[in-house]
## 1
Amino acid sequence: MMKVLTFGEMMLRLKPSESKRILQSDSFEANYGGSEANVAVSLALQGDDASYVSKLPANLLGDAALGTLNRYGVNTGKILRGGPRLGIYFFEKGASIRGTNVVYDRAGSSFAEAKSDEFNWSELLKDVDYFHFSGITAALSKEMQETLLSAVKYCQENNITVVFDTNYRGKMWTPEEAQAFSKKVMPYVNVVLANDEDFEASLNIKAFDGDMKHGIDQVESFKAGMREVTKQYPNCHTVASILRNIQSVEDSQWTALVLRDGIFAQSPVYKMHVYEGVASGDAFGAGLIHGFLHDYDLQTQVNYAMAASVLKLTIAGDLNLVNESEIKSVMQGADAMSR
Amino acid sequence: MMKVLTFGEMMLRLKPSESKRILQSDSFEANYGGSEANVAVSLALQGDDASYVSKLPANLLGDAALGTLNRYGVNTGKILRGGPRLGIYFFEKGASIRGTNVVYDRAGSSFAEAKSDEFNWSELLKDVDYFHFSGITAALSKEMQETLLSAVKYCQENNITVVFDTNYRGKMWTPEEAQAFSKKVMPYVNVVLANDEDFEASLNIKAFDGDMKHGIDQVESFKAGMREVTKQYPNCHTVASILRNIQSVEDSQWTALVLRDGIFAQSPVYKMHVYEGVASGDAFGAGLIHGFLHDYDLQTQVNYAMAASVLKLTIAGDLNLVNESEIKSVMQGADAMSR
Amino acid sequence: MMKVLTFGEMMLRLKPSESKRILQSDSFEANYGGSEANVAVSLALQGDDASYVSKLPANLLGDAALGTLNRYGVNTGKILRGGPRLGIYFFEKGASIRGTNVVYDRAGSSFAEAKSDEFNWSELLKDVDYFHFSGITAALSKEMQETLLSAVKYCQENNITVVFDTNYRGKMWTPEEAQAFSKKVMPYVNVVLANDEDFEASLNIKAFDGDMKHGIDQVESFKAGMREVTKQYPNCHTVASILRNIQSVEDSQWTALVLRDGIFAQSPVYKMHVYEGVASGDAFGAGLIHGFLHDYDLQTQVNYAMAASVLKLTIAGDLNLVNESEIKSVMQGADAMSR
Amino acid sequence: MMKVLTFGEMMLRLKPSESKRILQSDSFEANYGGSEANVAVSLALQGDDASYVSKLPANLLGDAALGTLNRYGVNTGKILRGGPRLGIYFFEKGASIRGTNVVYDRAGSSFAEAKSDEFNWSELLKDVDYFHFSGITAALSKEMQETLLSAVKYCQENNITVVFDTNYRGKMWTPEEAQAFSKKVMPYVNVVLANDEDFEASLNIKAFDGDMKHGIDQVESFKAGMREVTKQYPNCHTVASILRNIQSVEDSQWTALVLRDGIFAQSPVYKMHVYEGVASGDAFGAGLIHGFLHDYDLQTQVNYAMAASVLKLTIAGDLNLVNESEIKSVMQGADAMSR
Amino acid sequence: MMKVLTFGEMMLRLKPSESKRILQSDSFEANYGGSEANVAVSLALQGDDASYVSKLPANLLGDAALGTLNRYGVNTGKILRGGPRLGIYFFEKGASIRGTNVVYDRAGSSFAEAKSDEFNWSELLKDVDYFHFSGITAALSKEMQETLLSAVKYCQENNITVVFDTNYRGKMWTPEEAQAFSKKVMPYVNVVLANDEDFEASLNIKAFDGDMKHGIDQVESFKAGMREVTKQYPNCHTVASILRNIQSVEDSQWTALVLRDGIFAQSPVYKMHVYEGVASGDAFGAGLIHGFLHDYDLQTQVNYAMAASVLKLTIAGDLNLVNESEIKSVMQGADAMSR
Amino acid sequence: MMKVLTFGEMMLRLKPSESKRILQSDSFEANYGGSEANVAVSLALQGDDASYVSKLPANLLGDAALGTLNRYGVNTGKILRGGPRLGIYFFEKGASIRGTNVVYDRAGSSFAEAKSDEFNWSELLKDVDYFHFSGITAALSKEMQETLLSAVKYCQENNITVVFDTNYRGKMWTPEEAQAFSKKVMPYVNVVLANDEDFEASLNIKAFDGDMKHGIDQVESFKAGMREVTKQYPNCHTVASILRNIQSVEDSQWTALVLRDGIFAQSPVYKMHVYEGVASGDAFGAGLIHGFLHDYDLQTQVNYAMAASVLKLTIAGDLNLVNESEIKSVMQGADAMSR
């Protein structure tokens, strides 16, 4: 079986129940997740061999985060323990015209403070076939960018496919910083994911007219941007992107475009009633990688990844708690009403 | 006051909170219900004299199930106690494109294991005017089918109206088995309910083109199927059916057709935002029976039954916790926004 | 900073969790609110100087209500304590075609039983610039109507702007009673709010064709009604109204009309997925007053007030827990999907 | 089977979760109970034929209260519906040295406002063998005292045993008022319950030295008081009393004394860790009546009643949710640790 | 590192919140556990290499049970999937004199129905050093007894230490059946655990006077029984037992005796306030095995095992969620009050 | 009315429900508190004029913390807003022999990072009569120690009584660091609180034999230590201390000693069943200050402060949600069982 390793930060997510605001809430639902951890969990639940590398504090919170990964079948043997704290983010689920709101409390975390030499890539990447990380990891510090560059260089030398989810976060760094990093890392990247504003913010490539609420109406513009990526970075054989039209927190349409080896494929458009609009990009990335691992043809790959992604929109928490057969059932348009 | 008796299995329903998956849930909401029990509760809450016959284990779970029936006014004096266990079903509420999911754990229940001679129909059906059961009861065992046949024969001899909700469950038996039973029981049935795929699976009568997501678009086809039922089974004076167009777990349209004494009536179409898509067929059946008990004209009956049915879609749990005036208020299109 | 004083009753609201019915609920979520208290809290959270006058019982429930006001920054120093009890209302949140349901248990409350001479208006209204109350307060008793008339007379003599939210409640008084009060109080009112059926029920002025589900389709008719108000009551320089088209408990469209100094302005129409349809009128009133306090131009005022109002529809409880910048963000059509 | 009728007020009890204070609580657990309703439920769960008469409002709260009685098997066919409201009480469970706290909100309830002529005793008491009521009912109003006197006179004329639980509540009336009523009613009473301070407050009979925390240490003094009762009221063949030593909310010792036909019996002393210290007197009364219904000898009766009473201290809510075999198991000192 | 394998059934435990009764509960807390699974989880959390073998259904409940084991670090790679269902037990936590109550719903489970030849012991026990099972497993069926006998024979031939927790359950089999099995299996057992009535019920050896509430007062009698075990079964080098004095569900004293290679050691006596009285025997067994794995001297072993066992009494659920350092901290009498 | 100002850090406290461990918890109860904030809230609820100075982040968490203070009547007008984050602590409530466990996540908080010159003491302490802070504040940083020294010097110059709760936290600094700070600050302190090990750790004064579980048994030794404090620091007119005997997390005895102007007084000893063992020292400090504000004689002051302190042990969360009359009721030994 092929092996995937993902690398990034795991955080405690604290969310008021239902759609309450923090101001009125006297309890929080607790989940543990993070972009790359979410990808690893998705893959493990889909039956793949997924490992995760990070650094978690050697305290009860770190234990709980680790327990989450174990629970869903991720290999956690290479995770470092130590450092000051587990990063936290507070998550206020929006409703209708009130957008979902995130308050980061992640500074000074064990992972963000980890030193480059704590990660011995020749050991960590031994026998690995796919290496996945996101722009969030890079946004944490210059040190972490160095760490990532060491990793991707090792990958290139050892024929490990590098998957980079640009995942731009405006609360963490500026477009200029993101683009500077992309410039350095993209020559080593084989598969890149860029959704919505990521193209412009992370890659400095124009893909749409700036109105994120009408992505699906701009498919051709996105295609042009995707082609530009492969032109600038010839090592990058695959560019994938989620496009959305958004009416409200609950109502939106979703489709995906993949450009692989010069050929485009688009998934069906899903009209969604969103239950929790978080981590669908991670679910998409995992679906895409699953497609590579199992040699899906291009159209199947994009359809599968999109079905995985929209399933995530129906599930509470950061993790896409579905297996392969459930994703395929959505791909095949199973009856929404059980008997 | 006329008397109704319903007969079937009652189960413990265990549901993760909100739309959580079982995999992530560390608690379950508990409800007690079952197709025929739901009908009895609906009728009792609407002011009718409703009794329920079943067999419940003589343990705390059986007590709790019994308490539920008592709470809402069902006559429970004829319920048997004993046997191994209360059946259970786990209920994962879906969201958007993720369908609702049911895991049955009902094998070996006190009711399923009950012997035919435990039910003394001449006593149980004394003074009863309407006898209701569903295909779920028949699907439990050959023995239960014998039990039902004894009951309906007694009804025919004693002028008790027999109401049969075909209620096909693919997880319990095959269409062939269901049809074999229908063949035997239908000659004794006076009122039959068949929704969606029930026509074909239970009655082996073609009523639509196989696409359950577009039932309302096929009204004429359904009418033909309903006429065919009355043709094959002349004792059956009423055939009733719910038709739906389904977009997602939350969004669907609902209407009902009733063929009574050769005349069709259709309810208005309701555009629904579904809160919990379960037991609306039972609510419909109860509404229909309530119409018979109170001599509603055909159009009022179908409208009332449909209003009862769609109200159920707004209520948590298996039971349709509404009274007659609330149903009539929906029939009359009351303002959805209170003051 | 200008000062606002609102005057009315505060109640304990008891609501079954999610959309459960009272009949099936073994717990209630507790909130403390009331039309005028809601306005005061909204203003305080938006950074204004807001005081609230009422009478709360000198028991643990009164303490809890007071704590709620303090929590969100309302000046509570003038609130009276004593009397028999805190009013209560039970709130069943509807779903789809099942309307939201309110059971009042407010008779005999400390505020409803308060005597006119307990409120010393020259002290209470000292330094106040805006005085706000609603028709709910007037509906409590003849005595309370006298109390209000004393207050508004004092306001007129002391150049305090009087804001009257007609807020008709059919469960509390008849249109005839409401209209009789309006006749007496309107000559002292400077700003009046009337939504939906309030025009006819409270002011005896025809504003629409009786179908509250299609208010937005009748803008012109509403405008005529609003002009009629200013014609009958020349002291009333501003008339404001929310208009709605309603499809279900969850789905509706919202807009607002304001007639100020003879000029109309209308807000954009918001297509809403309603989370909890309560107290949006209070949020609107607070937004309107905030506009006066900060010299917003007419169009900004109506847009701001409407944005505040629809935000309330996304928030649990009676209180509009948003600040000025969040309201402005909705006014500017911020992205509904956070990053 | 012998029949018992109890008569009194049923209320909604609202309790913060665990041992929270009202001031900090944003939800309440809801239970429906009341002294005489609790007795009826206890008897029904122990297999006896128990009816309850009261007046409940014709609203959703009244429905919910009724549902509770039905759920546990009480005959509710004679309950009146109508009137203004359901009484409420707020219940703060104490801890250690912080005593449990009750806030009444029961004024103006449907039952308290009910008129004497609404209760037709010759119909209500038809075929009844035991009639039970408490001092709480009498404390509601002079009218209710008249109602009770009519009832007990009817009982005496028709050989119905009258059980009176003095149940003094200092928040409802003064000792003088209670004693005046006792004077009138006691000549018709056959069985009287008086615990702790009830002797002095309700019956004006000295039974202990005023220190309720050391009741068990004063058994002889209680016996003297009990004898005095039978001396003053010769119709009263049985006097029963619970005696307690109290260390804290959680820790106390319990015993019971019964004087029946001139003979005393005392139950064992139970050393209790109290889970919820409410309604144990009602549980005791029900146990006592159960003993009469089943011809228990005196020692068995007092032991059974005491076991029922202390079991109530282990159960959440007002209702003693145990059956006869569970009570007998405690009587026999079953192992506290299950296997 | 030495390896431990435990073998048995895992069930879903459903428990009403706090100390509620099933009759009044509308939700259940869900945990997954079972005697041998609990031992495996304990060992894994204490840093040992623990594997678990069982058979879980291939459905969502089986997935959830598996996820629990993974979460806490147990090796689950050898667990079989398939069969009809996951066993369930309902757990009513008692209080004071109301004992904890268990309702089994475990008949027909995937594990109970598993065939002997599904377990290939030479594969399953490869490289294993300690094999642990309990009498509960044997009580499931004759087939399972055969399975166990095959296993222990393999162990004896391959120098794998066999640990047998007699764990008598009167709801599952009779003493006669248990003793018959013990006769067959004990010749292969090296370490036996027997608490309270287990000696007599499972081993037919007299160890105390029948009063389980005063075990600690009968240390000498227990020692005699333990010596008798080693006399009858010379292969059995270690006999371990928990002794308790029990006052109520919450209050009890605990100590442990171990007879190892002919020498006795006793742990300190712990005076406990029990939070949840379940699975402390499994925690004890795991502590004992941990002592063997790490070559603890006898006194340390019994002290460690007892500390682990009483810690379990403070933790919700079936699993002893503590690590080695927390157990040692209790052994050393750490301050109960944190700073 | 005299004015009190307290100064320190406020944190978000996250606690698993009931006595769950973090490892098994998927939600946290949220409270906002901190030693000095707790004192301010206590005083405000007891009717005193209490202000609090701190620095809270300008985000939703800071708003929520502020709302808590407002809710209970603390003056918050002088609180600074800004800086990186709100400190957090995770709180695992222990049970029996499992001690309560705290995980700090407070590094880098807005308050800890605040600079000395952000606090303008001549403004902040204007009109203040009592200034209170704890050793926790000093433990945060050298900078904070400087800030405190500026404050207490200002107090001495302006006749403001300085109350210093030594409150040693071994997870924050060493005894050496604490003692170095005490040396500097004590010459300005008028009232010092030192419990248990604080004497030795913070003040380097021997007060007991090192066994914190038997404080009450060492009253004389504590008295000697207290006298030594006043000898070393003549400005310090009052030394107060809580002494405990501890059996388990739930069971302990509590008393207090105060040495004021050379005279000792001791409160009664309370035998407690502890509900939540946190912040009782803060409640004690507030009670002591309340005694000064209202000129209580020494014995009343120590009795009042101790009653306030043990009441806190019965209340969930960091805040002592009781008023003056409730404290006095406990002082007077009110009946623990309500009627």
Note: The radius of gyration of chain B is 19 Å.
## 2
Amino acid sequence: MVDLTHLMENEVFMAFASYTTIVLSKMMFMSTATAFYRLTRKVFANPEDCATFGKGEIAKKYLRTDDRVERVRRAHLNDLENIVPFLGIGLLYSLSAPDLSTAILHFRLFVGARIYHTIAYLIPLPQPNRALAFFLGYGVTLSMAYRLLRSRLYL
Amino acid sequence: MVDLTHLMENEVFMAFASYTTIVLSKMMFMSTATAFYRLTRKVFANPEDCATFGKGEIAKKYLRTDDRVERVRRAHLNDLENIVPFLGIGLLYSLSAPDLSTAILHFRLFVGARIYHTIAYLIPLPQPNRALAFFLGYGVTLSMAYRLLRSRLYL
Amino acid sequence: MVDLTHLMENEVFMAFASYTTIVLSKMMFMSTATAFYRLTRKVFANPEDCATFGKGEIAKKYLRTDDRVERVRRAHLNDLENIVPFLGIGLLYSLSAPDLSTAILHFRLFVGARIYHTIAYLIPLPQPNRALAFFLGYGVTLSMAYRLLRSRLYL
């Protein structure tokens, strides 16, 4: 069996691993937030959820939508749409031997932007707070994609 | 050209590759299930789909939603929301030289939980079947994230 | 610090990196398309967006849905549902030492199919253009999954 720990001795890769784990854990928190609002506000998407979690004869009336729940779900979907490209492009970028401090700057900006995006979406803060957070994270990912395609294009 | 097969000689990584391929294939099956219900129940989201697959003069009436189709779509989105973190965190965890049997236990529990989640969503089974399957998969991913951040944090 | 550039000297991996970066950048373009239609058509999902981007006293009336925006969002979600499996399965496939020309054929077909899928969805082209593009990309991913499970199964 080959020892793979050397990959984790690469500092850029370790930094990528840490920031990715943090941003993915943040995204997973959105599921809990959705579940929390669904249970406290009694807003369900499935009849079987009403029956168990919305006790009472008229449970079916809890089969509805709610502004708060929909807001969390939109924030969650936006996370997915932006973290998936970061995951793929960031992994390949980390393996393309970038400068350590440049790489860490990219990762920090992205993770910061996504956390701020979530805060701006859930409070909600007035626009353009959320839009700026979105475009910062977007720009960071594009910057890594550009670096990758410029130096390692192979079609 | 460098030979990369040594990465695939690492047993943890091979196990991760196998379980990931299985759980992603399962997720892809959801697309087929959606297509199946859309075609058999004549429920479409786009006018051009009605025109081709819902033959007849009054095809436009098939531009509607359907409980069954929406249920499959919710299960699919839930898969996405949970399998993406598993993909990222699990990959990094696999490269961080974990104990083989612990790693395989994590992968098996996650894949089992997601398959059971799909079954519980599509039949549907009464709650809390689906909720427990969800939280088992969620906990497995968090456990890998915790292991990763504790041993390899680099910010 | 270990030098990881040798991974990027592997031709299959470099090709995977290039095609993945392209297809993820294409997916990110969908966010811009959604934002473009939301702003030009004044169709918002959040009250705070109306207040800032849909100026006027009766901004609240812009809190609505729109066929064009929903179409882009469906195309975006379909991208997510298909590119995530490609990302995971394709990465593992690339590391399993496949034949270079076979691998590049897979990547090219997938990226071509997804770009054509987006065009067919957004114009929109009559069916079965979009359905064929979808199933081509789907088949490519399944073909890589099959290759991976046949040669490297470890459960």
Note: Chain C has a mean pLDDT of 84.
## 3
Amino acid sequence: MSEQSHYQYNVSMSCSGCSNSVSKVLKRLEPAVSKVDISLEDQTVDVFTSLPYETILEKIKKTGKTVNSGKKL
Amino acid sequence: MSEQSHYQYNVSMSCSGCSNSVSKVLKRLEPAVSKVDISLEDQTVDVFTSLPYETILEKIKKTGKTVNSGKKL
């Protein structure tokens, strides 16, 4: 099994439709993405994955949402 | 100048954040996409483009929004 990383991205999401879209796109990457936690209140997207940080970032950007920042936890 | 087509897609969008995301992603395709009209009320995305129907469809799907139908007008 490949090593898992935990990344957190700050993403502008204004409704549950927005956050569901981000979730849906990231879950298409299963099993390379093992878990996605989204908080609309905190405007955060937590991703547990074996994929690189940049790969996930690009995928989120393709949803059309603005990614304000991101980090490895 | 290449021939322009007008496609209309029915897309589930629940807020202006949702529709802005779709708009933003499609406008990245300029100048191959010349115009994007989105109606949140009608749940429609109208695209004027020289690109194929499927190319635009795939781009919208990557936003994580559900595309219910689409047609060439």
Note: The longest strand of chain B covers residues 5-11.
## 4
Amino acid sequence: MSIRIGILGYGNLGRGVECAIRQNPDMELVGVFTRRDPSAVKTFGVKAYHIDCAAGMKDEIDVMIICGGSATDLPKQTPEYAKIFNVVDSFDTHAKIPEHFAAVDASAKESGNVAVISVGWDPGMFSVNRLYAGAILPEGNDYTFWGKGVSQGHSDAIRRIEGVLDARQYTIPVPAALEAVRNGEAPELTTREKHTRECFVVAEEGADLERIEREIVTMPNYFADYDTTVHFISMEELQRDHSGIPHGGVVIRSGKTGLNKEHGHIIEYSLKLDSNPEFTSSVLVAMARAAYRMKREGMSGCKTIFDIPPAYLSLKSAEELRKTLL
Amino acid sequence: MSIRIGILGYGNLGRGVECAIRQNPDMELVGVFTRRDPSAVKTFGVKAYHIDCAAGMKDEIDVMIICGGSATDLPKQTPEYAKIFNVVDSFDTHAKIPEHFAAVDASAKESGNVAVISVGWDPGMFSVNRLYAGAILPEGNDYTFWGKGVSQGHSDAIRRIEGVLDARQYTIPVPAALEAVRNGEAPELTTREKHTRECFVVAEEGADLERIEREIVTMPNYFADYDTTVHFISMEELQRDHSGIPHGGVVIRSGKTGLNKEHGHIIEYSLKLDSNPEFTSSVLVAMARAAYRMKREGMSGCKTIFDIPPAYLSLKSAEELRKTLL
């Protein structure tokens, strides 16, 4: 019997989930649930329903994958829908994870459902790699570098500046910093030493480019602590050269073992992603399989990637996994 | 209360475990158990007992880490000691894992103990990374490269050749192959295209070096399928330049997502290890923590890294993990 999946929210992430389900033969997509007029939502084939129909389809859906944004959607939606469904989300506001966990856990425990939160690549695969590496090498340092890739939040921040029509911001690790870490030098790095930021900006005709550039590079939190480069380009160039949503990054643990810490070790996990949302969607879908299995085993409550036996993510049986992948 | 650890077998691995325990404040090393005369075993400080004393110390040890070899020790010892203790081993004969699992599982289920087998880096961390990556990107290819590092088995094979006093063999990934994989080219690679082998050999005075070299490079299974380089060096050079046991390698998944597989993704996990046995020991110790916790939760039987929630490996609490690493 297939695992029956629902998608709540149909943006880049939701579309990615629809594609990913097709690569997983043990899953079946029941429908997309949207706040918009369902007849206006163009999917790749799956039926769209109004979000208010979701609760009534409780018995037709094993896991609801919630594809909203972390700022306002997920803090409300995940606890709400965990009362009805097993759910998975990609909540990525790191500082608010404990709070989100508590709210979702209360809902999911009450309903007896399983809710997997904060999966994707960071939080998600990067987090679990930090955990493994730190458990193996207790004496050491963690490093996370992001990019090269498009930061949606920073691109949005530039778009809010007066005179800007559109913008794309790339986060780029500083090669020398990355190399020092990989060489086991265990450097202490400031924000500025770890990443640079490169911005491609389309300005309104006649806009004051110097002012726009100054507003970008001095913007607190977003750019002021980084070395930032600004390029003004045409809308055609932006659409031609910067329409993708690539991202990636590396998590490195540099640690020591031996009687006198005489041996150095480098553990590195890296991602190079052509499509940030499609990769996140692919993680969400594997986690939906895990949620389904945990529920069947009688578990309930909120779970993170830290709590889930890796085998639960795979379509393969335990025997097959031991035989082919161990 | 500390987790009380025993070490069964005291070679490179056992010594590595003794060092690793010191980095884990929730653990306490009870003793080393050896087939040799305990008074002749020089540890870094822990008491050595004869292996026959182990069973009698059942109540003083929470987890026995079995540090024997995969060829003859572990197939016997792990099932045997799983009858008495929670155990962890690093059994690494990939083809015989299903058989080893079955034997250990029967013992551990009967005794109600938890036995974690085949942990280290391959099998172990490489395996779990293959599992995660394959579950996330079902459409893709796996690649594993080993090295640059010392292969103990290949070094031993050279030492068995007549006229050879000592030898060290390095396994080295072919840079062009690694680059093609990282570029997402998803090449099909033969054994020869993936790795080269480099041998440093100390020959007896007057030995026929041409014959030794020929015997090495044509040796079936070990060298015949590889491009192999042989260097004859002095015993002094061997001891000066090749006394370490470094190793490492990379596991890469190259996969596609999107409606028409239009987006490529590269997931890479890599290790650069100054000491192969000390890293393996560090994994064994983290897994001992997991075995202890699983037992306390009432689980029993044989487990692999695939079955263990990552959080069980860490000293940190679930709350702390979510707050600091997620």
Note: The CA atoms of residues 250 and 270 of chain A lie 4 Å apart.
